[in-house]
Amino acid sequence: MNEQELRQAMSTLELFRAQLESIAENQQLIQISLEELGRARETLNQFQNAKEGDELLVPIGGNSFVFAKVATNAKAIVGIGTGISVEKSMDEAIKTMDDRSKELLDTMNKLNDRRLAIEEQANVLSQAVQQEVQALQRGN
Amino acid sequence: MDDLSPKVQNQIAQFQQLQQQLQAVLNQKFQMDAQVKEMARTTEELNKSPEDVVIYKSIGALLIKVDSKETILKDIEESKETMEVRLKSLERQEKSLRDRYQALQDQLNKALSTPSGQPLSSM
Question: How far A95 CA lies from chain B's nearest CA (Å)?
Fold first, then answer.
């Protein structure tokens, strides 16, 4: 490795570090979304057991609730992106949550594979750089 | 850093500035790209829905019922087209910045490899 190659290797290592950081951030966001989808799915599932007219308490934040009554347990409104939501039957709404969770899990697995590949490349390069630096220091 | 010639110091400053600009453009591009994909997904979902599907549009924290599926689809298509034009312009900007970045990187590598350049151990 000449000096230029060594410099290049060090900047590649820095790039790997930034990529790993970004992957970790994305994985954290995906984990949060997965938990949210899980909660929504469970709520929709339980809501199917509610009867029309049943009283329920709706959280409004600040640890406060207002009284409401079940208008229907047969349908729910689901966001489909770009600020648009559509009415879906309860089964469809639950399926949407499941489909989204599956997509997120797929992405999570792909990110994991990518993380492992980058970590491996970084380890190999890091060892090569370390050996080269030690050799240079011995030479000085 | 003090050992470097003013010219190289200037180039390093320019290089760092370019890096920041490139990062900003990439961030904007990423966000816009995500929005375009989201719009395509919404359109696909709406097209799959039955004609009499009940649609709501969010206005702040409220959901307002929308009368026509066609109007919503048209609105999304228009926004998507606008966004795609902006995305193309960002791509041009990215290319130009990348070219300058590469050229400056080559110049710096050359300058730093010469004996008057920065010694490697201080990097």
Answer: 14
- A134 to chain B: which residues are within 8 Å by CB? none
Total domains in chain B come to: 1
Q: In this predicted structure, what is the pLDDT of residue B3?
A: 75
Residues of chain A with C-beta less than 8 angstroms from the C-beta of B114: none
pLDDT, chain B, mean:
89
Which residues pair with residue A68 across a beta bridge? Answer: A56
- Residue of chain B with shortest Cα separation from A81: B42
Q: Is the pLDDT of residue A108 over 70?
A: yes
Interface pTM, i.e. ipTM: 0.74
CA distance B65 to A90: 19
What's the pLDDT score for residue A5? Answer: 86
Q: Report angle CA A108, A22, A123 to the nearest 5 degrees.
A: 90
Q: Give the domain range for residue B96.
A: 6-116
Q: B41, A3: Cβ pair inside 8 Å? A: no
